[in-house]
Amino acid sequence: MAAAAVADENGSPKKTKQGGFKTLPFILVQVLHLKCSIRVLRVHYSVNAANEVCDRFATVGFNANMITYLTQQLHLPLVEASNLLTNFTGTAAFTPVLGAIAADSFAGRFWTIAGGGVLYQIGMLGLVVSALVPALRPAPCGGAAAAAPCQRADGGQLAMLYLSLLCTALGSGGIRPCVVAFGADQFGLGGRRPGGEQKWSYFNLYFFSMGLAVLLAVTVVVYIQETGYPLYVRLKPGGSPFTRLAQVVAAAFRKRRAAVPEDPGMLYQDKELDALISTNGRLLHTNQLTFFDRAAIVTPGDIAGSGEPDLWRLSTVHRVEELKSIVRMLPLWAASITAIAAGSHNFTFAIQQARTMDRHLTPRFQIPPATMIIFTTLTMLVSLALYDRVFVPVARRYTGRRSGITYFQRMGAGFAVAALGVLAGALVEAKRRAAAAEHGLIDTPGAVVPVSVFWLVPQYALHGVGDALATVGHMEFLYDQSPESMRSSAAALFWVAGSLGNYLGTVLVTVVQSASRGEWLQDNINRGRLDYYYWLVTFLLVLNLAYYFVCFHFYTLKSFEVDAGDEAQRRRDVAGSAEGKTELSAGCVVASRNGVL
User: Fold this and answer.
1) For residue range 133-177, what is the model confidence (pLDDT) as tens digits?
2) Rounded to whole angstroms, how far apart are CA atoms 92 and 158?
3) How far is CA 243 from CA 65, 104, 249, 270, 301, in A?
4) Whole-angstrom Cα distance, residue 465 to residue 413?
5) Closest CA to 235 of 30, 486, 3
6) Which phi and psi angles does 235 have, rounded to 5°?
7) Alpha helix positions (H), 133-278
8) Residue 199: its pLDDT value, please?
9) Is 569 helix (H, G, I), strand (E, B) or coil?
10) SS3 256
11) Which of 184, 191, 207, 316 reaches 20 to 30 Å from 483, CA-CA?
12) Exposure pattern of 328-356 as b/e (b: 16+ CB <10 Å)?
């Protein structure tokens, strides 16, 4: 069975000179530009010092110094600032849903990325103004001896900040769900399954570039826009995937009393109707979630005299399987939410820990507390490089898989390492607090506890390793297991998990604050019990890991048709696939799980 030719956004067949690794510099530099633009609202006490601070700490991520800006410049309480930051991060991670709808329905990934970039820059300009203009910040505190409390930011000052943050959130919503899928699209040439044997390496390279962006500033966007366009593979949108999903649900509910035939061959198929959304092969019928199979049962009135089906009454097997694929993915996708919630404190409480510790590199120079985030970034970069160049070749000898291990194994390992990272944080906080008590600093939150800030490096480093494993594996899982016409939407799910994870972090902090009656999480962390909070999060991560194993045990991979004439190439692709064991038969590839954990 031959697959339909892949067309670009203009409907013309893809040319061999399009796609591939030659497009990646333009795509990955766009990622670098996005990440580097998420600069910090730097902590500064004069306008003249702002540029110097910005240049010196251009490697520090947006969230890292945001907690410092909110508490030290806008004078918000620690818990309120933490919740504000996680709520913003959650909102920014949810807006990719809007970008995914636009990309998959009508705009296409290329133009959605372009539009999101423009809106994002508008928001960043607003953030720069709000950070540099003195009138948009409250007056500085009078010093330690001042009797009056610090003046909190007023409504107008916060409104400017919120409006700018909203623009950046909406702009990133156009970029985040599209850029990773847009890059992976570049390897779907010649009717081959997207990604092929190069796909697993692409995802490593993508996330390596995201981390590298925190260290580098990019200023060649104009060149990219003018030079990169002709090289891209631009897949034509196949209509709103959410409409198709709704049509399947509506048709299945309408026929909820109909008996599902034992022979799947009796269910409705229409290759021409599905051609635009199945260019790499139609999804094959699976025996799970059979309630939705009713949508593909042909009943009187489902097909008009012209032969066109009423899609709100009748769906093809491929469209039914699109819905099944998404539903099957959701439990495994949800496992990342708790891990993200646990990691959110790296940008809030962990930085406050660093602020109270000895940060001197030399007698006259001490590192800013937010700079500790760089250990997560550097560890992630090193881990990605070692994973790709050392671990994969070694693992390949034992597993026979071109990718070394499956993305299921990679995600599970990442979740386990994340739990160890929080555990390390609990142990270090107990040591820091004990030192504060020993030196009589419990009620002196501004004093420096005689414990080196580099005791925090293990927890930051472990989070970096966890990101290199779980984050990349999660994205590859979503891209590989989602229907091909919904890959922007699948990438949006990646960011929605981040959104819900940050919101969950807010809920967790709020619940802990209430349940502990304000004892665990205080502005004076020397008197609070932040270590208890870390122990609680560690316990939740262990439960989450067990939940992930259970969900994996019951997961079934999607199966799809391929061109029998391209079987030899597909055998090479399958050898490097992350799904596990794959069978080739009669012109179709059927992927199946093979005890990968």
Assistant:
1) 888 888 777 655 455 677 888 888 888 888 888 888 888 888 877
2) 17
3) 41, 11, 10, 18, 21
4) 10
5) 486
6) -75, 140
7) 155-185, 199-213, 221-227, 241-254, 271-274
8) 56
9) helix
10) coil
11) 207
12) bbeebbbbbbbbbbbbbbbbbbbbbbbbb
pLDDT in tens, 370-385: 788 889 889 998 999 9
Please, are residues 171 and 118 in contact by the beta-carbon 8 Å criterion? yes
pLDDT score recorded for residue 556? 86
Q: Which residue has the tokens 């990133």?
A: 172
User: Which residues lie below 8 Å from residue 110, measured CB to CB, with a gap of 6+?
Assistant: 9, 182, 229, 232, 234
Domains of the chain: 24-139+153-185 (no CATH), 328-554 (1.20.1250.20)
Strand partners, 585: 588
Integer angstrom CA distances of residue 387 from 64, 183, 196, 465: 26, 20, 19, 10
Instruction: DSSP for 361-421, please give it.
Output: EETTEE--GGGGHHHHHHHHHHHHHHIIIIIHHHHHHHH--TTSS-HHHHHHHHHHHHHHH
Return the structure tokens found at 160. Answer: 């400017």
Residues in the chain: 597
Residues 97-104: what's their mean pLDDT? 83
Closest CA to 113 of 195, 228, 36: 228
Q: How many Å apart are CA 486 and CA 344, to the nearest integer?
A: 28
Task: Give the bridge partners for 583, in sequence order.
Answer: 590
Q: Give long-range contacts, CB 8 A cutoff, 24+ apart: 549-555.
A: 549/412, 549/597, 551/331, 551/332, 551/335, 552/332, 552/408, 552/412, 552/597, 555/328, 555/331, 555/332, 555/408, 555/593
DSSP-derived letter for residue 38 is S
Cβ–Cβ contacts within 10 Å for residue 461, how many?
A: 20
Q: Other CB atoms closer than 10 Å to residue 133's CB: what's the count?
A: 12
| Distance separating alpha carbons of residues 286 and 150, to the nearest angstrom | 63
pLDDT, tens only, 113-135: 888 888 888 888 887 788 778 88
219-233, 348-362, 419-433 — which is least confidently predicted?
Answer: 219-233
Q: How many CB atoms lie within 10 A of CB 5?
A: 12
Helices 472-481 and 199-213, axial angle in degrees (round to 10): 140
Work out the angle between the directed axes of helices 108-132 and 47-56 (0-180°, nearest 10).
140
- Output the pLDDT for position 6: 41
Q: Tens digit of pLDDT for each residue in 387-412?
A: 989 999 999 999 888 888 999 999 99
Token duo for residue 391:
């671990």
Residues with Cβ within 8 Å of 327's Cβ and at least 6 positions away in sequence, in order, are 289
